[in-house]
Specification:
Largest sheet: 6 strands, antiparallel
Strand content: 25-35%
CATH architecture: Alpha-Beta Complex
Order of helices and strands: EEHEEHEEEEHEHEEEHH
Number of helices: 6
Helix content: 25-40%
Number of domains: 1
CATH topology: tt1808, chain A
Structural class: alpha+beta
């Protein structure tokens, strides 16, 4: 039976929060709207959050994606950018769509796949969140429960890197996937992109990666 009358709580215009949403109702909603939509979701045991991405949210996210791809090209390794892949587990009644995510070490396990279904398939190695609107759900707890080893959170012009530990995440000064990465430099490249352009900033970032690698 579909849960009736979920409670909608008033939120800023870029976010809608609903309580009392059963897993079945959530799945029906996702099935009916399909994948061709702008908004992203997070769901945790009856609470459904719907977010509409903003420009100031999307620009840093896109640059962080480009930086990860630049690292992969410099290292000559394969990564799979899975974007806002819906990560969900019915057994945990949890689901979330990150701003972006990557398969890195686990890329060979999902290469060529048209669908990824947890927990039969592995979760991404890296999740990226660009926070310009605060979430009403504990995203870190969601990602930890879903088994994401590493989380990047860009907020207030700062990049915070978290590695999964028992019981949640621990903030670190280096990346698990790319230990050589100068994490503290990344916000400067994002800031420079506003002056010199995004592709110029990515090219400068690639040069920095070469400097620290060789």
């Amino acid at each position: 039976m579909v849960t009736a009358n979920p409670t909608c709580l008033e939120q800023p215009t870029s976010m809608i929060l609903m309580r009392g949403v059963s897993w079945q109702t959530y799945k029906i909603l996702m099935s009916e709207v399909g994948d061709n939509r702008a908004w992203r979701i997070a769901y945790d045991r009856g609470i459904l959050e719907i977010r509409m991405p903003l420009l100031e949210h999307e620009v840093p996210k896109g640059l962080l994606e480009s930086f990860v791809e630049a690292i992969a090209d410099e290292l000559e390794i394969e990564v799979m950018k899975a974007g806002s892949l819906t990560l969900e587990r019915e057994d945990l009644t949890k689901a979330v769509e990150p701003d972006s995510c990557f398969y890195i070490d686990r890329e060979p396990q999902v290469r060529g796949r048209e669908k990824i279904i947890l927990p039969a398939d592995p979760p991404p190695d890296l999740v990226i969140e660009s926070d310009f609107t605060s979430s009403s759900l504990n995203k870190q707890a969601l990602y930890s429960a879903l088994g994401i080893p590493e989380l990047w959170r860009y907020t207030k012009k700062t990049l915070l890197v978290y590695q999964q530990v028992e019981g949640g995440y621990e903030q670190c000064d280096r990346s698990l996937a790319f230990p050589f990465l100068p994490v503290s430099d990344i916000p400067n490249f994002i800031a420079q992109s506003r002056v010199i352009g995004q592709r110029s900033a990515v090219r400068l970032f690639r040069k920095r990666i070469r400097d620290v690698r060789y």
